[in-house]
Amino acid sequence: MNGAKDHRFPAWRASALLRNRAFLTVLIVALVWIVAGFAKPGFGAYGHLRYLLELAAVIGLVAIGQTYVVIAGGIDLSVGAIVTVSAVGVPLVALSGDTTGVFAVIAILAAATSIGLLNGLGVAYLRIHPMIMTLAMATFLQGVLILIAGGTAISAQNPLLAWLGNARIIGIPASVILWTLMSGVALAVLHATPFGARLFALGANPLASALSGVNVQRTTMAVYAVSGLTAGLAGVLVLGMNGQGYVGIGDPYLLASIAAVVLGGTSILGGSGSYAGTIPGAILLVTITALITVVNASAGWRSILFGSLILLLLLLSGRESQRR
Amino acid sequence: MTHLSSARDDRLYWPVQRERNRSLYGLFAVVAAFVALYAYLFPGLLSVAGVSKFAQSWLPLALVSMAQAILMLTGGISLAIGATVSLGAVIAATTMMGPLGVPGGIAAVAVSGLAIGALCGVIAIRLRLPAIIVTLAASFIIAGVALLILPRPGGAIPDWFSDLLAGNTPAALILLILAALLWKLYLATPLGLSLYAAGENPVGAYRAGVPVDAARIAAYALSGLLSTLAGLFIAAQTGSGDPVIGNAFTLNSIAAAVLGGVGFLGGRGTMRGAIAGSLLLSVMINVMFFLGFPPVAQYVAQGLIIIGAVALPEITRRFKRTR
User: Fold this and answer.
1) Cβ B307–A128 below 8 Å, yes or no?
2) pTM of the predicted structure, to 2 decimals
């Protein structure tokens, strides 16, 4: 018995660390930052890096839910629409008695969670493929949003939002602190709770996990609800940083969240990965975008560069294992 | 492997077809109902001119649904369909008035579609990268190229060519029937035969000597070709090119294929299902337009109908079980 305990985990080796995709992504980010810092004066300035982290916080928050859903073997294509719902919804539900804005934010987060829950309901009970369910949900929400908000931008006068968007605690933006806290919770839930273990089981083999007593339907509902919640939270943050919400504000975050998840080494097929990789994945994505903006190129070239860089990074970190 | 024997043995042909249609009766019924509603609202549909006008609005969606269905049958998927459609439209609008002329323009569109598709296929299959992410990245690159060729809507298509394809001719209907016939023909070739096998059980098919990788890469190439041809048709319809005109087709192609019963895991589904799915979407959009739905309500209804149509088999199954 005493021997078994030693061999439960393999001995620590430097080569094992290099094969860890999360660590690899951190390494790539560090490399890109150092090279860009030398090549482009001003890139390495504290203010600029802080700004990048602020932008990454939004993608990172959306990607919490996306990571969970992807690990559980699904995909959520409605996160962009949910971000918009939340960014447009908070100003709409603002009440006169609610001076701090806390009530509005909580109400919208609840709404975002229920949208996610509806996604889960469709996937778990109606057996609609996640891609179709969330896609149809996104289409539906887009229609509802235009119906409610129209084409105009809605600004929010909300102390909580202003604080989230602009406050700095000892020089660190509130959004980054929120992201850090949420990341800690997300990692703990994913790797240290039965719920997290069920997600991995569900993504690796849904039938086997159902036979071993995992309540597949309830877990599926929960994971999409989490995705709705984090997307809603990201929407609140976007609203705080932007000052106003409009239809379409959340659209860029759909592809960004999927890209961050995959660049972080989580298998798009489900069953393996970690949010620890998604964090540097989100930062990497924002950095690439910033670098491309710095290079003075036309919209076409920027788009080509962005796509090529994602393909290139995918070669480094996103390869599926040989299946034959 | 029923489709293998269908090519060999004529006696099995119709039973096989019946078996394939069986899971599609529900969809066919819904499509028939919507077509009937459309014909009731718009009696002009029931004429050669009416049908050919409708076929013109249906053809691009039908082509991209076929493009998506081919990939999904092999276990792949493409998020670059919309960008590829735009690229096809842009290439058509910039080459056809130039020295290449219309035939040269068609050739340029077809070759670029085949090349882009094949390249995506090689990257996804040979480098073993997940198709959904490869095509996502590819969609940025393709959209970028389209923007480089034509930064803003413009270009032109010769008038006679526009009239031929999208004027008062049944050209769209004929092209659609031609595409369906060519698909039947493709299924009879070695690569076409391998298509279902490669999607259903890649490992087993590989061990049985099926050229799995070749079949998959060919599917990507064909998918690219169909997408750019859809773009060409749209350019002929509008008379010009637009670098973002195809964006909506990515999601609509997936929706149509899934409505048609094509599965995401490969090897499940039929092309006739995907085409019927695209017909349903297209008739739905036309009916809502006729009923005077605002575009916004169309989004809402489209989302609900897609969920409803896909969930219908599961709901009826549950209903039967509880009885």
Assistant:
1) yes
2) 0.80
